Amino acid sequence: MNTIHIVVAAGILALILVAVMIMKKSKPAPEEPSEETEKPECGDPALYELGMNPVSDKPIMYALTTCLHCKNTKKFLEENHYEVTVIHLDDYCDSQRSDLMEKVRKYNPRGTFPVVLMPNGKVIVGFRKLLLEEAMSK
Amino acid sequence: MTPEELLEKLAKAAALKGYYLHADRDFCIGTAESLIANKERYGYMCCPCRLACGDKKADSDIICPCVYRDDDIAEYGSCMCSFYVSEEHKDDMDFFPEVDERRDPSRGI
User: Fold this and answer.
1) Is the pLDDT of residue A1 over 90?
2) Where in chain A are the domains?
3) Which chain B residues are within 8 Å of A126, Cβ to Cβ?
4) Min CA distance, B85 vs chain A (Å)?
5) ipTM confidence score
6) What is the helix, strand, coil percentage profile of chain A, to 5?
7) Which pTM was predicted?
8) Domain at A45-136, CATH homologous superfamily
9) Of A22, A43, A68, A110, which shows the fewest CB atoms inside 10 Å?
10) pLDDT tens profile B3-36
């Protein structure tokens, strides 16, 4: 009786092993990640160019997508009928991100956000209503 | 985690140090959404007011609450993002002081 049990158990085990091997073989190899999925999406090239050479008849704002003071600054400018071009640094990758940050530090050595370049050349750091109003009135 | 759940958690942790979240609830919800976005993007809740480099070790000082929060609150009454405030300003909806950045520029990007 014991011998029969052992033989049956060994048979079942062998079947399971064979089934597992077949399943492993038939399982498709994981797809190689495409270049598109490997590389994170980076920001708008045209805005990058503008950020590196900020010449415009509209205010340009260096900002972060996550920065509430940046959002409030944009809202305030728009409420005052100023169309502002926003360059979100956190949208950029690798050297573009550091290039833009270097540019921001040129206007604001502390590297805080937002940094607004007004068409009249005035640079305003942070959400500063009075300074923005003053710059808009000139 | 929803922004509301995160706010509840952060408010409890802040209370242990005698701090509060800003009185402007919408501002706090927006900040919580940004923290969640940074968690998804970088894997940690980096300060939403600063540009992260994406390396957790290099960004460790600006993971919220940042290491500058205590000094900022002691000097200005709020952290640089205006997210955490002192007891004195806990009910002030319009309290958004200009807080100088303490972080050494060489630490960032």
Assistant:
1) no
2) 45-136
3) 98
4) 16
5) 0.94
6) 55, 10, 35
7) 0.82
8) Glutaredoxin (3.40.30.10)
9) A22
10) 999 999 999 999 999 999 999 999 999 999 999 9
CB atoms within 10 A of CB B77: 19
Q: How many residues does chain A have?
A: 138
Q: Which of A68, A98, A110 sits opposite B101 (nearest CB)?
A: A110
The closest CB to that of B105, out of A67, A90, A111, belongs to A111
The span from the CA of B58 to the CA of B66, in Å, is 13
Cβ pair A28, A52 in contact under 8 A: no
Residue positions counted in chain B = 109
Digit-coded pLDDT (tens) for A12-46: 766 777 666 666 555 554 444 444 455 567 999 99
